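retry 2 of 3: previous attempt timed out while embedding thiamine diphosphate. Reduced batch size to 1 and resubmitted. Inputs unchanged:
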Amino acid sequence: MTTSLDRIFNVSLVGVGGQGILLTSDVLALAAMHAGLDVKKSEIHGMSQRGGSVISQVRFGAKVHSPIIPDGQSDVLVSFERTEALRWVHLAKPGAKILVNDMDRIPVTVSSGLQAPVQDLDRRLAAYPGLKLVDANPLAIQAGNLRAANIVLLGALSAFVPFAEEHWQSALRERIPAKLLEVNLRAFAAGHAAVG
Amino acid sequence: MKKLLSANQAIAWAAYRAGCRVAAAYPGTPSTEIMEHVAEFKGAIDCEWSVNEKVAMEIGVGASLAGVRALVAMKHVGLNVAMDPLMTFTYVGAIGGMVIVNADDPSMHSSQNEQDNRSLAKFAKCLLFEPADSQETYDMVTAGFELSEKYQVPVIVRTTTRTAHTSTIVDIGSGERGDVPGIPYVKNAQRNVAVPAHGRLMRFAVEKRSVALRELTETTAFNRAESGAGELGIVASGVAYQYVKEVFPEAPVFKVGLSCPPPIERIRAFAAGVKRLVVIEESDPVLAEQIRAAGIPVVEPQTELRMMELNPARLAALRAELLGTPALEAPKPEAGIPVRPPVLCSGCSHRGPFHILSKLKTTVCGDIGCYTLGSAPPLAAMDTCICMGAAIGAAIGMRKAGLPNQRIAAVMGDSTFFHSGMTGLLDVAYNKIPITVMVFDNRITAMTGHQENPGSGHTLLGEISTQVRVADVARAFGIQRVHEADPYDLAALEKIFLECLDSGEPAVVVVRGPCVLHEKWAGKFINEVDAVKCTACGACFRIGCPAIVRGAAKDPAGKRFQSRIDPQFCTGCNLCAQVCKFGAISPAK
Ligand SMILES: Cc1ncc(C[n+]2csc(CCOP(=O)(O)OP(=O)(O)O)c2C)c(N)n1
Ligand code: SF4
Ligand code: SF4
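retry 2 succeeded.
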């Protein structure tokens, strides 16, 4: 079964190095390919392992040209942490779904006092009508491993992306090592249920 | 067979399929993954991490002259290091196909400059392809091997960070290895020994070849006109083509894939069919200048397009200027979000020595690697950083410039030392320069994602190999004052640093410790702060460990925060306990 789309669908995934963003966007892009669509996945991860921001963008449709999604045109924004959600919120289309892992990774410059923390984070995030906080960490622990929090978020994302279940399944199987598959499939289902 | 591949993966697949037999590279973002993927084909392709890009290029040259197909890969500044062999190899000419992948980095996501190496292809009179996605990268590397053999020319494929790290769907055909026999080797000094007498003959051959290459670029399918409507015609190359297709969907476009030499006559014909011609390319106006020089009028827009990566929004601004259409409307970013700069990991072995250098008010000529993060506050322990290996020469120059009583150190990592620091150190020894060269030796190339190097004891394929000790190299050069030091013992470090810096003679300190991220290193304990003893003096914050965060309580005066240690990130390196004068930091029970 293939999916047909009459326009380009855009997803931006943002967070901090080490949160599994690149794997998550890999699975999303593979699912798009399995659904028979053209797809581009672009990522910038300079010194992400040393605590920097990471951003990955996935676009799919009949024919995709630019690998970069223009600001304000992401159909879904997925943030793996709350401050990054606010940093990148202008990537989302007005009114778009904004899925945010309900956790904080405080920048070192803030925790050590070199910079002020974000003022009013709760209120400013809540001002976006598409905001949906996801308890990805506890759900991942329930599924069997905190490290599967990224796949919980992917499961949540899947509720807003027009692919058939089989395409998600085959992409997860292709990209996730066999011994971690069960936990990740549970995490994916839990994420989907959390926003369904 | 279709696969979702980054351009870096596509290059490895193309090399495998095209029968490439030898591959060599030195890591550098965004090109590093190429060799890591080539290593997946290790039975078919002989591959290695070379010590630097010049050696990698020379290995490619040797393999090509021996008649087999060779791939070399590097980031843009790596090609600076490899220019010497390239500039004469282009005279000698390839025999087995030679493809050089050069990764430029518009926007300097991970580089110290934004040089546009397309100019270097023109300089070297060779071919240069500019792929727009992974499929094109695959096709251009494949064609590159053939054209290199046909025209006896080195072929450069110029990726950028965007193309290198974007995955797109690639048809890799059967996926099987191509059966390409080598070209039998024949000794031919007149062809392969570049002495002046031979070089003068080669010089004429190069010009003859250039004529043939200009004919090639006028006929190849990699350059093509795409019809459209409207009076504005666009010449576009590389990933800029993708943005053009998105933002100017109706416009006639001339897509340049083989951009050196550029297909001037076909562009002239294309230009004749439109009222105005604009050239959209990333970085320098390399194509625009050549097109203009051929007498073809090119519009010079007001919209700034020469610096930093292009994107659809920037092209929409150009469209607004040229066609009067509205610019892209985009929501404004939220203000007041703290930046998230990269920092040395908690427990990183580079932290302690920088803390001491800073304390000793040393002038530090630094270099490029994870340790460059020691230049940022609060350590702020670096005065200069130019290019790989430059620390030592710069420190020598500083000393000669008349900073006689100043403590001067050159600091670099192990991979950098082997790459291009050894020659500088030999200069220190030979000319008896009173500076201290410090190698922060974590036995891995950490910055680019932990590649093996001659100090790590392993090769690209993980085979056990010689493990060069930097101290042995220094002694072999005749330097008398050579120390090895432990980065986690601050008192001992200070003593050794002082002794060397104030010795008035050449000295070397090799600070040997782990890359904690690579070795998943964890100490025997984690530290905690005693809230009773902590006076909120702030000393531990000044080592810049990300595990040390603000505590809730303030000092009695209520001005400063006490510190707290985040147990999730503490590795137990124990530096913080050594800088705390009040004994407030000790292992958690
Ligand atoms: C000529 C050149 N080649 C490659 C690079 C990319 N690069 C930057 S730092 C680095 C290696 C750093 O390794 P090392 O010196 O061991 O320091 P570490 O990161 O381990 O602290 C490399 C390969 C570069 N900047 N310049
Ligand atoms: S990756 Fe290694 S060398 Fe780089 S900052 Fe972390 S511990 Fe230090
Ligand atoms: S012991 Fe101190 S300096 Fe070392 S990682 Fe833990 S908190 Fe950081």
